[in-house]
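anyone else get weird line breaks when pasting these?? whatever heres mine. first is seq + tokens for prot A
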Amino acid sequence: MNIDKEKLESIEAKLYAILDEIKEYKKNIKEEIDVTKFKCLKTLNVDSGKVCSVAYSPDGKYIISGLSDKNIRMWDANTGECLKTIKSGHTGEVDILSYSPSGKYFISASSGTRPIKIWDVSTGKYIKILREHNRFKSVIYSPDGKYIVSSTGLGSIQIWEASTGVCLKILKKRLGFISSIAFSPDGQRIIGDSFDNIIDMIDVKTGKSIQTFKGHLTAIASVAYSPDGNYIVSGSDKFNLSHSNKYPRWDSNCVIKIWDANTGECLKNLEGHSDSVNSVAYSLDGKRIISGSNDKTIKIWDANTGECLQTLKGHLDRVESVAYSPDCTKIISGSDDGTIKIWGEE
């Protein structure tokens, strides 16, 4: 058998480079992060209106926030310094933000209006506008950064080419709005909640529903995939938007559910919030789930056992958005009280 020595050496060099990156990454992550010791480390005041959405950059160095005054602010995640204030040009509050996987771009939107905007992080200027849309509710990047996916208040999900801003296809249509969507880590599936309190899993290539997740009694406000793609977490609203008589009009026990992504089985109910759960997210290591609620708190859950490990208090109004830092050492939360809080160990 002929062996191309140069090719073999090239592959070997790439493997060693990847291993070095993994080692360096592990150095930056504490082996044991004690979330029971999390406290508010910094409070970032926006001074005008509410904080509707927050997101960490993929490298964890920056935080972006969408505000009710239609502005976007970029912050230094370490110092809490406001680096940029961007006038978004949106007609409503900026409640949708998402970084591209490369960290070079981010998308913004105002729920229920249009358009979607793609921004260059380095310049703070928008570079593309996605206009062929109406009343969208959620916008995200695909894991490889090649596509942007949006859901609408009219029950459709659209896929856009990120580099051109061209709408490539509509995956599905159904009654009612789809308020939250998430990509599987391999980019093959999309999950989205629906008008009838059900989560649909959709095959990206075929656009067909391949799995449904039933069990919520009230409207679903947020969904997220676990980093390994095996689990899904969903948070529910206090009120029911479905007109079906089989669901109660409201439920004081706003449940978070963990699902088996492969079977659709509900594995655990996480109970503890007393009002609507607006935002849920997994930590990058998959060990923790965080949730932000109208009850003004953030809860940290053990993703394996479902145990509530910590309740973070300090916001004076409802918590609209939460996010984990990429190194799993910090949490950010955005609230209607006009502040962003950074939480972690002192």
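and prot B, same format (seq, then tokens)
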Amino acid sequence: MGGSGWSYFVAYDSDVVGAFARLQQDVLSRGDFYSHAKKKFRSLEQLREAQAEEGTHSIIDMLRVTAEPAGELDPQAELLAAMLGGATSYGTIYRMSDAELEACFSTTRPTRSIIEANTSKVFARIRRGYGRYTPVFDGTAAVELYFAGVSGD
């Protein structure tokens, strides 16, 4: 099937980790994900177990969100760490750095319309198994959070 790009806008919350967790639960309850098993899942863990090899092609595949921007990721080191049971950053959504924001949106304070017009630039920067987020602005105030990523197999 290959990886799938996904994105979501949610109401702004300074607690990005909490917003991420609520969004995952919302996607689960709406059934807005890929699953070969045509059944209702009661928990994220149950769904992840059923979709372990293919993923859900949604934000549910992500395991954590961090306020740190993405550094240079070494795919071979990540694979080796995963194979050896070590720490890996796979499944992480990173905050978009100012450099990424400028490259994708020509501003560090993007509006929803700017983001929607430039999603291909965001996805071009994301490797499978990772994501990005940024606050979305309306004038001077952050009004939404934008999450985007690529996952699934």
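btw re prot B: The chain has a mean pLDDT of 88. The longest helix spans residues 16-30.
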